[in-house]
Amino acid sequence: MLGDFCLFPFLRRRRSEPEDGGTDLDPVLLISGIGGSILHSKNKKFGYEVRVWVRILLADLEFKRKLWSIYNPKTGYTEPLDDGTEIVVPDDDYGLYAIDILDPSVWAKLFRFSDVYQFHDMIDMLIGCGYKKGSTLFGHGYDFRQSNRIDKAMDGLKAKLETVYKASGGRKVNIISHSMGGLLVSCFLSLHNDVFEKYVTKWICIACPFQGAPGCINDSLLTGLQFVDGLQSYFFVSRWTMHQLLVECPSIYEMLSNPGFKWKQHPLIQVWRKQSEGKADSSVQLESYGPSDCISLFQEALRHNELNYGGKSVALPFDLNILEWAFETREVLNRAQLPNGVSFYNIYGTSLDTPFDICYGSETSPIEDLSEVCHTLPEYSYVDGDGTVPIESAKADGFAAAERVGVAADHRGLLCEKAVFQLIRKWLGVTEKSVNHAKASRVMDEFSTEGCSISSVWLMDHIRPEG
């Protein structure tokens, strides 16, 4: 693949790994969130693979051809419309390759697309603290389209924990999860509590939407999601192309606002609606939908949603089968309990305007048919958070946390924020040992913190008492 060939050696420099292999350290397993893993499309007949997420060149075209999918209620899995392929996650570099730089091509590095740099800086920091890939440092990417509790997801995480445990000589694992990766871990904790207790000693959770990410997820189901902004967006998957995948992803439904959570104020979807009483008479009203009654809005707005694939129309309405599955996932999450002897730490983002309520249309330009919502950019009302997950949701983990700490950074920026690194080193009980650099990885960049620095001001929250 082009992404594996480097014309410029300076783009492949990273801290050298310790000669002793960090054998005195408990191993670390990094777990990504939604959109945080490389995905390949694998041809079932010939076995060759093509990276479809993330890619810069031909991004929108390849996404439509290989990643557009439809939910199969008989299996519970979201399956590619191209039935000659399957979606796989590369496990190279002990699982780190898939969560490092999401487009490892020369072009992404040359143009410095910082938004595709996922765990890159954190991997670099941990290597500098003495961790060694394959013995004390591992990664875990997964097919983030699927449910967080689906069998393949649970079996994959179980197998990875066993691998890490054995490779480190029987030392228990420190998990560091980001975003939806925290929900994946929570589902595993709920469904396989004994396995979790056997293999895990600490879990550091970063920016997890424990009770949902109302503004972002509601709008994602209605109008799509733009992962990058500005000039970079022209090289990336379009908002609407992404939308047509997300409406078929159980993982997205599982991040809807938890209707059973006691929000300070329930998140709303509002629509300025034109009420036609006759040919001459009409009025405008502001309709409001809470976490429980927004389902009718999703159904009505998406009733005509479809895409064209291979010359055929494929209907993609709001899927009640996925919603039912997501409700069951919420019950699984609510049952999660931290085993004795496992320490839990929660880092959440602060100081960013974070979408909470969303409003479509206006009093002077109202929506007449609710299907128009899907082609209307909303106005947001904001709360404090990381720009994606509200503080209120990220802090509501339901566990007896050793510490909860707020860091002033955005959702992805938390992965390369110095204050976060300081906390991780503190909780792992390690310090940086080396600042030397050497060629040591498939995916590298000497400018690892450029474009990632955000204010390192961080606010200590109170320690939640156990029980």
From TrEMBL:
Q: Which organism is it from?
A: Protea cynaroides
Protein name from the UniProt record: Phospholipase A(1) LCAT3
Record-linked InterPro entries? AB_hydrolase_fold (IPR029058), LACT/PDAT_acylTrfase (IPR003386)
Q: SUPFAM superfamilies recorded for this chain?
A: alpha/beta-Hydrolases (SSF53474)
Q: Tell me the classification of the organism that encodes this protein.
A: Eukaryota, Viridiplantae, Streptophyta, Embryophyta, Tracheophyta
- Gene3D superfamilies in the record: alpha/beta hydrolase
- One example GO MF annotation: O-acyltransferase activity
Q: Which domain of life is it from?
A: Eukaryota
Q: Which PANTHER family match?
A: LECITHIN-CHOLESTEROL ACYLTRANSFERASE-RELATED
Q: Which Pfam families match?
A: LCAT (PF02450)
GO biological-process terms attached to the record:
lipid metabolic process
